[in-house]
Task: structure prediction
Amino acid sequence: MGSETNSKAGPRRGGGETVILSDKTALLNNADLPLIFAWLVDQEYGRIWRIASDTFVIGADAANDLTLSGPDIKDAHCSVYFVDNRFEVNDHNTRSGTRVNGAAVKRLALADGDILEICSQRFRFKCFMGEGRG
Amino acid sequence: MDDKTVIEPLGQTVLLSSISRSAAGTGFSPGAVKGWLTVWSGAQRGFDFHLFEGRNFVGRDPICRPNVADGALADFAFNIRISGDRWSVIDLDSDEGILVNGDPVFRRELQDEDWLKVGEILFRVKKL
Result:
Protein backbone atom coordinates (compact mmCIF):
# COMPACT_ATOMS: atom_id res chain seq x y z
CA MET A 1 0.00 0.00 0.00
CA GLY A 2 1.31 3.40 -0.81
CA SER A 3 1.50 5.92 1.93
CA GLU A 4 2.66 9.12 0.37
CA THR A 5 0.54 12.11 -0.32
CA ASN A 6 1.09 12.88 -3.96
CA SER A 7 0.59 16.38 -5.18
CA LYS A 8 2.11 18.27 -8.04
CA ALA A 9 4.36 21.17 -7.22
CA GLY A 10 3.73 24.46 -8.94
CA PRO A 11 1.50 27.48 -8.78
CA ARG A 12 -2.19 26.78 -8.39
CA ARG A 13 -5.07 28.88 -9.55
CA GLY A 14 -5.93 29.72 -5.98
CA GLY A 15 -2.57 31.42 -5.56
CA GLY A 16 -1.02 28.88 -3.20
CA GLU A 17 1.69 26.42 -4.00
CA THR A 18 1.74 22.78 -3.07
CA VAL A 19 4.99 21.14 -2.12
CA ILE A 20 5.80 17.51 -1.55
CA LEU A 21 7.06 16.52 1.86
CA SER A 22 7.48 13.01 3.15
CA ASP A 23 4.13 12.48 4.77
CA LYS A 24 2.34 15.74 4.44
CA THR A 25 1.32 18.33 1.92
CA ALA A 26 1.64 22.01 2.59
CA LEU A 27 0.22 25.13 1.10
CA LEU A 28 2.69 27.97 1.05
CA ASN A 29 1.82 31.64 1.30
CA ASN A 30 -1.75 30.76 1.94
CA ALA A 31 -2.60 32.81 5.00
CA ASP A 32 -5.48 34.53 3.24
CA LEU A 33 -6.67 31.61 1.16
CA PRO A 34 -9.61 29.40 2.00
CA LEU A 35 -8.48 25.95 2.97
CA ILE A 36 -9.31 23.10 0.64
CA PHE A 37 -8.95 19.60 1.98
CA ALA A 38 -9.93 16.70 -0.24
CA TRP A 39 -8.21 13.54 -1.36
CA LEU A 40 -8.32 10.91 -4.08
CA VAL A 41 -7.33 7.44 -2.94
CA ASP A 42 -6.28 4.92 -5.55
CA GLN A 43 -8.42 1.85 -4.89
CA GLU A 44 -5.85 -0.57 -6.27
CA TYR A 45 -2.58 0.63 -4.76
CA GLY A 46 -3.67 2.95 -1.96
CA ARG A 47 -1.79 5.97 -3.29
CA ILE A 48 -3.21 9.26 -2.13
CA TRP A 49 -3.45 12.60 -3.91
CA ARG A 50 -4.36 15.71 -1.99
CA ILE A 51 -6.68 18.21 -3.62
CA ALA A 52 -5.58 21.54 -2.21
CA SER A 53 -6.65 24.03 -4.86
CA ASP A 54 -9.91 24.94 -6.57
CA THR A 55 -8.98 23.13 -9.79
CA PHE A 56 -7.51 19.64 -9.92
CA VAL A 57 -6.91 18.27 -13.41
CA ILE A 58 -6.69 14.56 -14.15
CA GLY A 59 -5.45 13.09 -17.41
CA ALA A 60 -2.55 11.81 -19.44
CA ASP A 61 -0.63 15.09 -19.61
CA ALA A 62 2.36 15.04 -17.27
CA ALA A 63 1.58 18.60 -16.18
CA ASN A 64 -1.72 17.52 -14.64
CA ASP A 65 -2.29 17.29 -10.94
CA LEU A 66 -2.90 13.58 -11.37
CA THR A 67 -1.33 11.89 -14.36
CA LEU A 68 -2.86 8.68 -15.62
CA SER A 69 -1.80 6.47 -18.48
CA GLY A 70 -3.94 4.45 -20.82
CA PRO A 71 -5.05 4.46 -24.44
CA ASP A 72 -8.47 5.95 -23.67
CA ILE A 73 -7.32 8.66 -21.30
CA LYS A 74 -7.21 12.17 -22.74
CA ASP A 75 -4.52 14.68 -21.87
CA ALA A 76 -7.03 16.57 -19.73
CA HIS A 77 -9.63 13.91 -19.08
CA CYS A 78 -11.60 15.41 -16.24
CA SER A 79 -11.27 17.94 -13.46
CA VAL A 80 -12.39 18.27 -9.88
CA TYR A 81 -13.45 21.81 -9.05
CA PHE A 82 -14.10 23.39 -5.68
CA VAL A 83 -16.83 25.90 -6.38
CA ASP A 84 -19.62 27.36 -4.23
CA ASN A 85 -18.25 25.47 -1.25
CA ARG A 86 -18.65 22.08 -2.86
CA PHE A 87 -16.63 19.76 -5.04
CA GLU A 88 -17.68 18.88 -8.58
CA VAL A 89 -16.23 16.59 -11.19
CA ASN A 90 -16.37 17.66 -14.81
CA ASP A 91 -15.69 15.28 -17.68
CA HIS A 92 -13.97 17.05 -20.58
CA ASN A 93 -16.17 15.53 -23.30
CA THR A 94 -14.21 12.33 -23.42
CA ARG A 95 -15.27 9.29 -25.36
CA SER A 96 -14.46 6.83 -22.60
CA GLY A 97 -16.09 9.07 -20.06
CA THR A 98 -15.91 9.61 -16.32
CA ARG A 99 -18.03 7.61 -13.91
CA VAL A 100 -19.12 8.32 -10.37
CA ASN A 101 -20.41 5.37 -8.37
CA GLY A 102 -20.79 3.48 -11.64
CA ALA A 103 -22.79 6.11 -13.53
CA ALA A 104 -21.35 8.10 -16.43
CA VAL A 105 -21.35 11.82 -15.67
CA LYS A 106 -20.58 15.06 -17.45
CA ARG A 107 -20.69 17.29 -14.39
CA LEU A 108 -21.69 16.21 -10.92
CA ALA A 109 -21.26 17.29 -7.32
CA LEU A 110 -19.08 14.90 -5.40
CA ALA A 111 -19.77 13.57 -1.93
CA ASP A 112 -17.43 12.07 0.61
CA GLY A 113 -16.78 8.43 -0.25
CA ASP A 114 -17.83 8.61 -3.89
CA ILE A 115 -15.98 6.32 -6.27
CA LEU A 116 -14.54 8.16 -9.24
CA GLU A 117 -13.76 5.90 -12.19
CA ILE A 118 -11.65 6.95 -15.14
CA CYS A 119 -11.38 4.13 -17.67
CA SER A 120 -10.36 1.20 -15.49
CA GLN A 121 -8.82 3.24 -12.68
CA ARG A 122 -10.86 3.79 -9.57
CA PHE A 123 -10.40 6.38 -6.85
CA ARG A 124 -12.26 7.04 -3.64
CA PHE A 125 -13.01 10.71 -3.15
CA LYS A 126 -12.73 12.00 0.41
CA CYS A 127 -13.64 15.41 1.72
CA PHE A 128 -15.19 17.16 4.68
CA MET A 129 -18.94 17.22 4.41
CA GLY A 130 -19.85 19.14 7.53
CA GLU A 131 -19.51 22.77 8.46
CA GLY A 132 -16.35 24.53 7.30
CA ARG A 133 -15.51 22.00 4.64
CA GLY A 134 -13.27 24.29 2.72
CA MET B 1 -2.95 -3.01 21.28
CA ASP B 2 -2.80 -1.64 24.81
CA ASP B 3 -2.18 2.00 25.43
CA LYS B 4 1.13 2.51 27.24
CA THR B 5 0.33 6.00 28.41
CA VAL B 6 0.11 6.09 32.20
CA ILE B 7 -0.62 8.81 34.68
CA GLU B 8 1.64 9.11 37.69
CA PRO B 9 0.15 10.08 41.05
CA LEU B 10 1.35 13.65 40.69
CA GLY B 11 -0.64 13.98 37.50
CA GLN B 12 2.33 13.96 35.20
CA THR B 13 1.83 12.13 31.95
CA VAL B 14 4.60 9.68 31.24
CA LEU B 15 5.21 8.01 27.96
CA LEU B 16 6.70 4.59 28.26
CA SER B 17 8.92 3.15 25.62
CA SER B 18 6.04 2.88 23.20
CA ILE B 19 7.10 6.07 21.42
CA SER B 20 10.48 4.84 20.39
CA ARG B 21 9.21 1.40 19.52
CA SER B 22 6.30 2.25 17.36
CA ALA B 23 5.21 4.99 15.04
CA ALA B 24 7.48 7.79 16.10
CA GLY B 25 11.12 8.05 15.31
CA THR B 26 11.49 4.82 13.43
CA GLY B 27 10.78 6.10 10.00
CA PHE B 28 7.72 6.72 7.96
CA SER B 29 4.79 4.50 7.16
CA PRO B 30 4.00 2.14 9.97
CA GLY B 31 1.09 0.85 7.94
CA ALA B 32 -1.72 1.83 5.67
CA VAL B 33 -3.12 5.32 5.98
CA LYS B 34 -6.32 5.37 8.03
CA GLY B 35 -7.08 9.05 7.73
CA TRP B 36 -5.75 12.55 8.11
CA LEU B 37 -5.08 15.20 10.69
CA THR B 38 -5.67 18.53 8.99
CA VAL B 39 -4.46 21.87 10.30
CA TRP B 40 -6.80 24.85 10.04
CA SER B 41 -4.91 27.49 11.97
CA GLY B 42 -1.42 28.17 13.25
CA ALA B 43 1.98 27.95 11.62
CA GLN B 44 1.10 24.77 9.74
CA ARG B 45 -2.24 25.92 8.39
CA GLY B 46 -3.10 23.98 5.27
CA PHE B 47 -1.03 20.91 6.09
CA ASP B 48 -2.51 17.45 6.20
CA PHE B 49 -0.81 14.62 8.06
CA HIS B 50 -1.40 10.95 7.50
CA LEU B 51 -2.69 8.93 10.44
CA PHE B 52 -2.05 5.23 10.84
CA GLU B 53 -3.38 2.27 12.78
CA GLY B 54 -2.08 2.37 16.33
CA ARG B 55 -0.62 5.41 18.05
CA ASN B 56 -0.05 8.70 16.32
CA PHE B 57 1.89 10.98 18.64
CA VAL B 58 1.28 14.57 17.62
CA GLY B 59 3.74 17.20 18.73
CA ARG B 60 6.62 19.47 17.94
CA ASP B 61 9.32 16.98 18.85
CA PRO B 62 11.02 15.59 15.73
CA ILE B 63 10.28 12.02 16.71
CA CYS B 64 6.56 12.67 16.70
CA ARG B 65 4.52 11.40 13.82
CA PRO B 66 2.75 13.57 12.93
CA ASN B 67 5.45 16.12 13.62
CA VAL B 68 3.69 19.49 13.70
CA ALA B 69 6.29 22.22 13.55
CA ASP B 70 4.41 24.89 15.41
CA GLY B 71 6.05 26.68 18.31
CA ALA B 72 2.70 26.95 20.04
CA LEU B 73 2.43 23.18 20.33
CA ALA B 74 3.98 21.03 23.08
CA ASP B 75 6.77 18.61 22.25
CA PHE B 76 4.32 15.76 22.80
CA ALA B 77 0.87 17.29 22.69
CA PHE B 78 -1.58 14.47 22.11
CA ASN B 79 -1.97 10.98 20.82
CA ILE B 80 -4.54 9.90 18.27
CA ARG B 81 -5.01 6.23 18.80
CA ILE B 82 -6.61 4.25 15.99
CA SER B 83 -7.89 0.76 16.56
CA GLY B 84 -9.92 -0.30 13.58
CA ASP B 85 -12.85 2.05 13.26
CA ARG B 86 -12.37 3.33 16.77
CA TRP B 87 -10.40 6.55 17.06
CA SER B 88 -9.58 8.32 20.28
CA VAL B 89 -7.54 11.32 21.34
CA ILE B 90 -5.48 11.33 24.52
CA ASP B 91 -3.92 14.48 25.96
CA LEU B 92 -0.23 14.06 26.66
CA ASP B 93 1.44 17.15 28.08
CA SER B 94 -0.15 20.03 26.28
CA ASP B 95 -0.14 23.07 28.55
CA GLU B 96 -3.43 24.29 27.21
CA GLY B 97 -5.30 20.99 27.20
CA ILE B 98 -7.37 19.77 24.30
CA LEU B 99 -10.83 20.79 23.24
CA VAL B 100 -12.83 18.41 21.09
CA ASN B 101 -15.66 20.27 19.41
CA GLY B 102 -15.29 22.87 22.14
CA ASP B 103 -15.30 20.48 25.11
CA PRO B 104 -12.18 20.09 27.24
CA VAL B 105 -11.11 16.45 27.32
CA PHE B 106 -8.33 14.24 28.58
CA ARG B 107 -9.39 11.25 26.55
CA ARG B 108 -12.25 11.15 24.10
CA GLU B 109 -13.41 8.93 21.31
CA LEU B 110 -13.24 10.75 18.00
CA GLN B 111 -15.82 10.84 15.26
CA ASP B 112 -15.16 11.63 11.63
CA GLU B 113 -14.63 15.37 11.07
CA ASP B 114 -14.27 16.24 14.75
CA TRP B 115 -12.49 19.50 15.58
CA LEU B 116 -9.54 19.54 17.97
CA LYS B 117 -8.21 22.73 19.46
CA VAL B 118 -4.89 22.97 21.30
CA GLY B 119 -4.16 26.52 22.33
CA GLU B 120 -4.70 28.56 19.22
CA ILE B 121 -4.11 25.66 16.86
CA LEU B 122 -7.16 24.16 15.25
CA PHE B 123 -7.10 20.63 13.86
CA ARG B 124 -9.72 18.46 12.24
CA VAL B 125 -9.67 14.74 11.72
CA LYS B 126 -10.87 12.92 8.63
CA LYS B 127 -11.32 9.18 8.44
CA LEU B 128 -10.46 7.39 5.22
About this structure: The interface with chain B takes residues 1, 3, 5, 16, 22-27, 30-31, 33, 35, 37, 39, 41, 46, 48, 50, 52, 124, 126, 128-130, 132 of chain A (CB under 8 Å). Residues 20 and 77 of chain A are 24 Å apart (CA to CA). Chain A has no helices and 15 strands.
